[in-house]
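Our preliminary data section would be incomplete without showing what the modeling component actually yields. Below, a chain of 149 amino acids is followed by its predicted structure, encoded as tokens that our downstream tools consume directly.
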Amino acid sequence: MVLHRSESYPIRGIAYLIRHPSLWRQIFCGLIIMILVSIIVSILLLIFAFPVQANCLSEYMSDWIAWIINFFLTLFEIGITVLVFSSLFLAYYMNIIFDAIWRQETMATNREEIQLTSSTRTACIKSFLILIIFRVILVVLTFPLNLIP
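Predicted structure:
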């Protein structure tokens, strides 16, 4: 395993993406989904939220300044909404891309390595279940001590 400088990872990732056209579909699908969400959120907020907020603001200030302030307020709301959606969507989409890269990189492995990975995974799951069972037993046994301050 070769370690590289941390600042080279983004460039290496982009180069990897360019060299593997099979990943382009996943990247473009995610990009198209985010563009569509941005457009839909912009249209909905500009149609429904913008006029109502402008009318509410015009009660406290002149109309022209209320519309200008509300325009920037609506842009801010659009940005926050897209940011929240992208943060939720990004974690899910990173898993999809990671799985695609994992499948692509492990296609060349032989059956012995796959069986070794499977047995390692099973052992890890069993260890994790034993740890959970031990924690539950420990909580049940120490519960009376936790009641007394």
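The chain has a mean pLDDT of 81. Residues 10-108 form one domain. Preliminary results of this kind motivate Aim 1 of the renewal.
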